Amino acid sequence: MLNHVLFTVAALQARALAASCPSLTASYPAPSVASGYEAKLVAQGLTKPRGLTFDNKGNLLVVERGVGVSAYTVSSSDSCVELKNKKTVVGDGALNHGIEISDDSKTLYASSIESVFKYEYDSGKITIKGTGEVIIDGMTTEGTVTRTLMLSRKSKNKLLVSRGGDENIDLSTVDINGGESQIRIFDPSKKDQKYTDGVTLGWGLRNAVGVAENPKDGGVWSAENNADNIERDGQEIHENNPAEELNYHGKLEDSKNPLLNRNYGYPLCYGAWDTEEIPSPGTLQIGQQFAIAEENATLQDSFCNTERQAPRLVFQPHTSPLDLKFDTKGENLYVTLHGSWNREDPVGYSVSVIKFNPDGQPTEGSTSTNALSPIIGNSNTTACPGNCFRPAGLAWDKSGRLYMSSDSTGEIYVIVKTGGKALDEAKSTSAAPSGISRMGSGIAVTVLACVFAYFL
């Protein structure tokens, strides 16, 4: 009798949860998800969603390219997440990627190809006051358009802004004073700053779209989208070289940071992935930098390895890393791989994780080709990029769930561990939206009523 009752309760709970948790269906094959993880589609119909962040009330803010900043309220339980009540927070079609928010959620930052804007934000009303102000400008380029923003949590009053270059191989970036293909540090309390006024954290970075700070030790990392269609000694080697890069920039709070103002190679030097494809590789190893000068490139390899900062890790070429997010303990770094457009066999189109040691460095060595462990990806990459999702932005909610935007399909996914458990277990679940308790209470009442009905 008791077993039968328990079975009935479990079935009723499952039905109640299913009924209270609407499911969205993608137009392409269901994603491939690694063992131990779950991924659920929670929003559709967005316009090229890119950067994501949460305010202190648990509202999800999204940059929609060509639209501005939109917001969703989040209703959730352990096994169900719903995004509701979408509204426009900032109506500015020039905004296209970067977004950040202060710890108290009173200040919102967003970027366009030209400027960084600051807005007075009210998380209770999910609104801004006024039209905002420009705090940084002078960033327009003819090539890359994204300006990633990262507000340091370890070193207060420092805003990092990443800016790419004008061309695929922009030779003008050999001059540090130009301000292109760099990450610079700014004081966000100031306004009317030119990009070239910022302190140079790193340069020689073709397009470091992903930027993150390790919450454990304050180490700053960037993910670089490397050049296409490169040649060496007149030979085309672009299919499997150069590698995408994960670069380390030291700690912002370290006044003697030896990596401050370091050059990471571009446009003269590039990380190697497939050394057998590179003409005259000599002793070149995976992860080391090589030159692509038109004449005697091999003779310049020594310059690349002694005068330029090598990547800490390398990824398969053309995977296009776009965002980086650490978990609370700094043990895992999650990466969105937007995917290839210039490769015969599509690669990327996934979210992967990189394991980190307690010393704040990746567990894998710099010559590894296995640093990335896929979590969620397209089950049929041969249909990409036309008929698949393309991961772009990432954000954590207070319950340790990871949200991912797909700009190509106008969607948002949420990623958790099996059973709806937090991906970042160190994050508190006590601050979950109030909708949880109401949903849970309703299910409990329904189940108890049915149990009593059974005995009667």
Automatic annotation (TrEMBL):
Keyword Signal: yes
Signal sequence residues: 1-18
Location of the Pyrroloquinoline quinone-dependent pyranose dehydrogenase beta-propeller domain: 31-417
Keywords: Signal
Organism listed in the record: Amniculicola lignicola CBS 123094
Pfam family, any one: TrAA12
Protein name as annotated: Soluble quino protein glucose dehydrogenase
Lineage start: Eukaryota, Fungi, Dikarya, Ascomycota, Pezizomycotina
Classification via InterPro entries: 6-blade_b-propeller_TolB-like (IPR011042), Beta-prop_PDH (IPR054539), Quinoprot_gluc/sorb_DH_b-prop (IPR011041), SMP-30/CGR1_Lactonase (IPR051262)
